[in-house]
Amino acid sequence: MASNLEPKTNGISANNFDIEIPIHANKESVENESNINYFQRAQWLRAAMLGANDGLITVASMMIGIGAIKEDISVMILTGFAGLVAGACSMGIGEFVSVYTQYDIEIAQMKREREANNNNNGVVDDESTEREKLPNPFQAALASALAFSVGAVMPLLAASFIKNHKMRMGVVGAVVSMALLVFGGVGALVGKTPVMRSCVRVLIGGWMAMAITFGFTKLIGTTGL
């Protein structure tokens, strides 16, 4: 006599083959994706993208500026290399000091809030968790310096093998423009911001920097100021 107390699973007897369908799998993956903290991601992204754009624009502007009055390729390359080294050091040290200052301010604020609450329950765990969310000065400095170097290398490589002065200037401008579009697009995709707006903003900013540097250098070089 079959018992009426046999457990049921989705209307199928336990004696049959039970198939469990994880209906929450897709939901959990969507929730995990939606819970990504893009603000924390922006901490290192900001330093990296700022360094890359700065290296690209600074060194390219220096090379185009010196190219406005000097046609010698060695002068242009030396100028760009000096800008790479000086800029990478400046970006790394500046980012380290800036982020470390922010780190000290947030640590001090955490201590003031803990003293004001006068509640020791879970203080150690809460403080260690909060410290993990703070920006890392060493990480930001290294990312900024390396990114600056990567950006600065591009115009140097573009100009190194072209002897014709006008062609060299044109190639540097074209390579820099393409790189600016790539940097703007990558930054937008990683940070989940509008791609077109980011690309146009970065490109126009780079063009303005190179044009201003070229114009002022040309003016000073031709007038002998």
Automatic annotation (TrEMBL):
Q: Which Pfam families match?
A: VIT1 (PF01988)
Query: Which Gene Ontology CC terms are recorded?
Result: vacuolar membrane
Its membrane topology is listed as: Multi-pass membrane protein
Membrane-spanning intervals of the chain: 44-66, 73-93, 140-162, 169-190, 202-221
Which superkingdom heads the taxonomic lineage of this protein's source? Eukaryota
| Chemical reaction(s) catalysed | Fe(2+)(in) = Fe(2+)(out)
Which N-terminal residues, if any, form the signal peptide? Answer: none
Q: Name one GO molecular function term.
A: manganese ion transmembrane transporter activity
Which family, according to the similarity comment?
Belongs to the CCC1 family.
Its biological purpose is as follows: Vacuolar Fe(2+) uptake transporter.
Question: What is the protein name for this chain?
Answer: Vacuolar iron transporter
UniProt source species = Pisum sativum (Garden pea)
Species classification? Eukaryota, Viridiplantae, Streptophyta, Embryophyta, Tracheophyta
